[in-house]
Amino acid sequence: MKAVLGLENGEYYIGEGFGVEGSSAGELVFTTQMGGYMEALSDPGYQGQILMFTYPLIGNYGVHPDNFQSSTVHALGCVVRELCKNPASTPSLGDYYSDNGLLGISGIDTRKLTIATRLNGTMGAALIVGDDNGEYAVECARKEQPITGMDLISQVSCKEPYHIKGTGKRIAVLDLGMQNSILASLKRRGADLYIFPHTTRPDVIEAVKPQALVITNGPGDPMRATDAIKTIQYFIGKIPVIGVCMGNQVAALALGGETCKMKFGHRGSNQPVRHRDGKIFITAQNHGFAVDKDTLPEGCEPLFTNVNDGTLEGFVCEDLNLFTVQFHPEAHSGPYGAEEQIFDRMYRRIP
Question: Which string of DSSP letters, residue by residue, matches 195-218?
Answer without folding.
Answer: EEETT--HHHHHTT--SEEEE---
